[in-house]
Design brief:
alpha/beta; 28 strands; Rossmann fold; 5-stranded parallel beta sheet
C-alpha cells in the first residue's frame, strides 16, 4: 500500500513516467515537468539535503509561491523523514521568528531574493537557522553569507551523491510510515501566537482520497495552484490530492498573471476562497459598466433569466421549454463567453471555503453554468469534513459529511467533528491540543451551526462571535457578524466589512470600499478624487454604500432569526484593512477584536450618535517604512425594516 507522499510520487513515476505532473509558466512559456523528472529531482534534492545534514524528524521551512522545485523540496524532506513547514510568502520577517523558533528550524528553502532577505533579517533572533537555500538566483549574485546557497548547488551535489549511492533514496523512502508526521501548518494566529498543526501522511492522504472519491477526480484533471502553499486548502488541492490522483498542477508565472494563466490552462478542478470569487465578479461588473448600451442591456436581460432558471438547471431540475431555449441562447451570447473570460470554460467542479460566501455571489456562478459548491473544514481537520454533492449545492449550507466523518452538535450549538483527518496535535502545545481534542476523539471546531432536515450542515458563525442584541427594538435578537458582513460584501463596491452589535442595542459596521470598483464608478461620473482616503469620504460614495446597506437590511428583515442584525449606522474607513497592519490574518480574515481596539474612537462614535469622527492611524508600507493616515470620517444612519412575519 502506498502510505506516504514520496511513495505515491514513485508510483506515478513508475506507472506513467511521461505524463505531465506539473507545469510552470516562465517568461510567458509553459514548461512541463513529467512524473519521471519530478521523481529524479526529488531524489537529487533529498540526497543534497542529507549531505547538508537534514535529519529524520527535523523541520525545514519552505517559503515562496507555488513552484515545482519548492514542492519537490517538500517531497525530498518527507523522503528523508523530515517535516516541511510552509510559511506565508507575504509575511513580514518578524512573523517568521516564532515558527522558526518554535519548530527549532535549521534549514530553510525560499523562493527568491525577497525571502532570502527576510531569513537574513531574522537570523540574529534565530541563530539556529544555519542553512538557507534559494530557488531563484536573480539579485543574489553578490550575496556572501554563511550557509546561503542556491538550490541548483544542492541539486548538483545531490546528483553526485545519488550516482555514488543509488540505493540511498529508495531505502529512505521505504523507511517512511503512514503514521509519520508529514507536514506542519501554522494557524493564522488571530488571538495570539500561531499554533503549529501537526499532520501525518495518513491524515492528509485519507482526506485527499475522500475528497477525490466524492467528486470522482482522476488523473485527467488540471488544477491551477495560485494560493499560498502555507494555507492547508492550497496544500491539499495542489499537493495531497495531486499525489493521490496524479493530475496536473499548473503554477502561474506570478500573482499578477493568474487571470491570464487561468484562461490559458482552463482548469477542470478549481478552488478559491469567497474573496477571489468576489474579485472576479467585481472585474466583470466593472467591464460591463464600460460596455455599450446594447451589450449592457443584453447582459442584464440574460443575467435576470440566469438568476431565475440557472440554479435550478444546475441542480438537474426542469426549467421549462421556453426558459430552456432562452437559457441556451443566453449561453451562446453571454454565459459561455463570460465563463471563458473568467477562465472557467472547462471547470467541472469548483469549490469555495475558508469563510461563508454570500448567497447572491454563490447563485451568480451557479446561474451561469459553473458547478460552484461549498466545502467545510479547517487546518485541524485536513480540510475535508463536509462537501456538497452535485445537484445539492445550496448557499446556506456547507454540504454533507464525507467518508469517515461523524458530526454532532453540542448544547451550546458548537459543531464537533470526528474524522480520520484530525490533527495529531498542536506542536509543543499540549494545553491547546487538550482544549480542542476530547479523549474519545472529538474535535471542537469553535463554529456554531446545526444539521438541517436534509442532512446538510449549516454554519451560523464562530461560537465566540455569535451574540445577542441588548436593549432597543431588537432586544435579545441573535447577532451573527460574519453573516451580515458577507451579505454586504456581495456588492462589488464593498471589499471588506467589520460588524459590531453583541450586547449593544443596534448593529453598526465599518466598511472598506473596493478602490478599483468605486474608482471606476467615480470616473464614469466625472467625480474627481485624490487617492483612497479622499474617495472613501465622498458624499456620493456614502450615498452608494447607504443604498447597499439598506438593501441588505431589507433582505435581513425577511429572516425571522436574523432580522435584528439589520445595520443602523455605518462609516467608510479611510484606509484599506491590511494584514501588514495586523487588521487581517494572512488568509485575509478580519481580526474583529484587534480592529475594535485599534479603532476604538470610531466604534464609540458609531454608538454615541456622532455624525463624524477624526482618526489618525499608523500604517506600514511595502518597503517596511511606517507613516500616518488621518481623516475625519462621516457616520451615517440607515433605514431598518420591521421583521416580515412568516405566513401562518
Amino acid at each position: 500500500m502506498f502510505t506516504t507522499f514520496p511513495r505515491l510520487l514513485l508510483k506515478h513515476a513508475a506507472e506513467r513516467p511521461q505524463a505531465p505532473a506539473m507545469r510552470e509558466k516562465e517568461y510567458g512559456i509553459w514548461q512541463t515537468h513529467r512524473w519521471a523528472d519530478m521523481a529524479e529531482l526529488v531524489a537529487h534534492i533529498a540526497c543534497g539535503l542529507h549531505q547538508a545534514g537534514l535529519a529524520r524528524g527535523e523541520h525545514i521551512v519552505i517559503v515562496g509561491a507555488n513552484r515545482p522545485r519548492l514542492y519537490a523540496t517538500m517531497l525530498a524532506a518527507q523522503s528523508l523523514g523530515a517535516i516541511p513547514v510552509p510559511l506565508y510568502q507575504d509575511a513580514v520577517a518578524a512573523e517568521c521568528v516564532f515558527p522558526i523558533t518554535n519548530a527549532e528550524v535549521r534549514f530553510a528553502l525560499v523562493e527568491d531574493q525577497e525571502q532570502v532577505d527576510k531569513m537574513l533579517e531574522v537570523r540574529e533572533q534565530v541563530p539556529q537557522l544555519t542553512h538557507i537555500f534559494y530557488d531563484d538566483p536573480r539579485g543574489l549574485r553578490n550575496y556572501v553569507e554563511d550557509g546561503l546557497a542556491s538550490l541548483d548547488e544542492l541539486v548538483a551535489s545531490g546528483k553526485v551523491f545519488a550516482e555514488q549511492h543509488p540505493d540511498f533514496f529508495p531505502a529512505q523512502v521505504e523507511l517512511g510510515r503512514a503514521e509519520d508526521v508529514a507536514a506542519m501548518f501554522f494557524t493564522s494566529g488571530t488571538t495570539g501566537n500561531p499554533k503549529g498543526v501537526v499532520h501525518t501522511h495518513a491524515t492528509l492522504i485519507d482526506r485527499a482520497q475522500a475528497g477525490a472519491e466524492f467528486d470522482h477526480l482522476s488523473a485527467e484533471e488540471d488544477v491551477l495552484a495560485y494560493l499560498p502553499p502555507a494555507w492547508i486548502g492550497q496544500n491539499i488541492f495542489s499537493y495531497a490530492q495531486w499525489l493521490v490522483c496524479g493530475y496536473t498542477v499548473n503554477c502561474p508565472e506570478s500573482s499578477s498573471t493568474v487571470t491570464i494563466d487561468m484562461k490559458e490552462i482552463g482548469p477542470t478542478y478549481y478552488f478559491a476562497p469567497p474573496r477571489v470569487f468576489e474579485g472576479l465578479l467585481t472585474s466583470v461588473m466593472i467591464r460591463m459598466e464600460d460596455a455599450g448600451a446594447l451589450k449592457r442591456k443584453m447582459f442584464h436581460y440574460f443575467m435576470d433569466l440566469a438568476r431565475k432558471a440557472g440554479p435550478a438547471r444546475m441542480d438537474g431540475k426542469p426549467i421549462g421549454a421556453v426558459n430552456g431555449l432562452l437559457y441556451a441562447l443566453g449561453d451562446l451570447l453571454v454565459y459561455g463567453p463570460l465563463r471563458n473570460n473568467l477562465g472557467m470554460s472547462r471547470v467541472r467542479v469548483a469549490y469555495t471555503a475558508g469563510e461563508a460566501i454570500g448567497p447572491d455571489l454563490f447563485s451568480f456562478y451557479r446561474s451561469i453554468g459553473i458547478n460552484l459548491k461549498q466545502l467545510y473544514g479547517s487546518t485541524e481537520t485536513a480540510v475535508f469534513v463536509c462537501l456538497q454533492p452535485d445537484h445539492e449545492a445550496r448557499a446556506d449550507t456547507v454540504g454533507v459529511p464525507c467518508r469517515g466523518v461523524e458530526i454532532k452538535v453540542a448544547e451550546n450549538g458548537e459543531i464537533l467533528v470526528r474524522s480520520p483527518g484530525l490533527l495529531k496535535g498542536y506542536y509543543k502545545n499540549p494545553e491547546a491540543t487538550a482544549e480542542v481534542l476530547t479523549n474519545d476523539g472529538w474535535y471542537h471546531t469553535s463554529d456554531a451551526g446545526f444539521i438541517d432536515a436534509h442532512g446538510h450542515l449549516k454554519i451560523i458563525d464562530r461560537v465566540k462571535d455569535v451574540g445577542r442584541l441588548q436593549g432597543g427594538a431588537f432586544d435579545g435578537a441573535m447577532f451573527a457578524p460574519k453573516y451580515v458582513e458577507n451579505k454586504l460584501k456581495f456588492f462589488p463596491q464593498i471589499k471588506e466589512v467589520v460588524a459590531y452589535g453583541d450586547r449593544r442595542e443596534k448593529v453598526c459596521v465599518m466598511v472598506n470600499i473596493d478602490f478599483d470598483a468605486v474608482g471606476n464608478w467615480a470616473e464614469r461620473r466625472n467625480l474627481p478624487y485624490a487617492g483612497y482616503t479622499d474617495l472613501a469620504q465622498k458624499p456620493e460614495v456614502y450615498d452608494m454604500v447607504k443604498e447597499c446597506v439598506e438593501k441588505v437590511n431589507a433582505d435581513l428583515a425577511q429572516d425571522a432569526l436574523l432580522a435584528g442584525s439589520q445595520i443602523s449606522r455605518f462609516l467608510v474607513l479611510h484606509k484599506e484593512l491590511d494584514a501588514d497592519d495586523g487588521e487581517l490574518t494572512r488568509t485575509n480574515k478580519v481580526r474583529r477584536g484587534f480592529i475594535a481596539e485599534k479603532y476604538q474612537p470610531l466604534v464609540d462614535a458609531l454608538y454615541d450618535g456622532k455624525t463624524e469622527q477624526y482618526i489618525e492611524t499608523t500604517v506600514k508600507f511595502e518597503d517596511g517604512r511606517t507613516g500616518k493616515v488621518s481623516a475625519t470620517l462621516r457616520i451615517v444612519d440607515t433605514r431598518t425594516f420591521p421583521p416580515v412575519k412568516a405566513a401562518a
